[in-house]
Design goal:
alpha+beta, Rossmann fold, 2 domains, six-stranded antiparallel sheet, 11 helices
Length: 343
């Protein structure tokens, strides 16, 4: 019999996962796995160290990561290097669930998510590796690295607000931060050349889902070995709002706007050209400061995905997608009101 280890965050999704443990393990056993579970602790390395222990043991065929993007990121960081010894499945129970969105895995529905394992649809997905040039430390991410004005957004929202208000907590914090956006001079070396200029936000994406916005990188693929790098070159509030509206509409026009730069590259370096601190956010977690180097590790982890819907160009999302699209529109409206009161 195959063996599976469930690594779960007991406080994710208003503790819904904790209540669903028995049923999740029962479903896994129905798919032929001998199962056991590990609840993460307050130690920030808890999920990472357990994933590393599981992979190093060589006794498990599958790790199931249950929690938000941060929990999934921690498990991936523990698996890289042993990733083809153990497969990964995810049960998304967080606030934005960006990676699950890209994989078309049901969010905050533990049993529907674990049933993806039963479909036996595997994909070798890319993993991003970030190396800090100051200390040569390597960290990994599965969905998005971001730096610039709003990179602090995810980790500046208190955990209790994420749990209580979910996506609306990010909306409120975004409204607060957006008027303070400032562009800084940067140098970005990539496969096809060099960008040197000012940018207020930089996104290095492995999927097309960022912060609840779908199609911010519409040609991003899970397994092509390339980053989709999106730069915002303006700090003008109304120009940023116009870009947000384009992203929400899903037309791709934001990629060719005069205020943006779009790059596809297997590797890149980001270096600030001023004394301004550039914090890096990896899958919603603090990742240190630039200068940094990014490398795409093509097909680094075998993960159970919903291939039927990933391959469907007509996928229209679910009720949560529709709700978040509405929130994105309200975001722009609310910031416009705030700006209007300042004149």
């Amino acid at each position: 019999m195959m063996r599976a280890r469930l690594i779960y965050n007991p406080i994710s999704g208003q503790e819904l996962m904790k209540r669903a443990i028995a049923d999740v393990l029962d479903h896994l056993e129905g798919f032929g796995y001998e199962t056991s579970a590990f609840a993460t602790t307050a130690d920030e390395n808890s999920a990472k160290e357990e994933a590393m222990r599981v992979c190093q043991s060589g006794d498990y065929d599958l790790i199931v990561a249950a929690g938000g993007d941060g929990t999934i990121n921690a498990v991936v960081n523990g698996m890289v290097g042993f990733s083809h010894l153990t497969k990964l499945a995810i049960i998304p129970m967080g606030t934005t669930n960006d990676f699950a969105r890209a994989l078309k895995i049901p969010r905050n529905e533990p049993l529907a998510a674990i049933d993806i394992v039963g479909k036996k649809q595997l994909l070798a997905v890319d993993v991003g590796r970030m190396t800090r040039e100051t200390d040569d430390e390597k960290t990994y991410f599965i969905n998005i690295a971001a730096t610039g004005a709003l990179s602090e957004l995810t980790y500046s929202v208190p955990s209790n607000l994420k749990t209580t208000f979910g996506y609306l907590a990010y909306l409120a914090k975004g409204v607060e931060l957006l008027p303070r956006v400032k562009k800084v001079p940067v140098r970005i070396e990539h496969d096809n050349g060099v960008f040197e200029g000012e940018a207020s936000m930089i996104f290095v994406a492995l999927t097309n889902s960022v912060g609840g916005f779908e199609r911010i990188a519409p040609d991003a693929k899970l397994d092509d070995g390339l980053f989709s790098v999106f730069l915002v070159k303006t700090d003008n509030l109304f120009e940023i709002l116009a870009l947000l509206a384009m992203v929400a509409q899903g037309t791709g026009k934001h990629l060719i706007d005069v205020n943006t730069e779009y790059i596809r590259s297997r590797s890149l370096t980001i270096e600030p050209l001023s004394t301004t601190q550039m914090l890096v956010n990896l899958d919603g977690e603090y990742g240190g400061e630039a200068p940094v180097k990014f490398d795409n590790l093509k097909g680094a982890i075998d993960i159970f995905v919903n291939l039927d819907e990933i391959d469907d160009d007509n996928y229209i999302g679910d009720d949560e997608d529709a709700a978040n699209a509405s929130v994105a529109q309200k975001f722009a409206e609310e910031v416009t009101k705030i700006e209007g009161t300042q004149h």
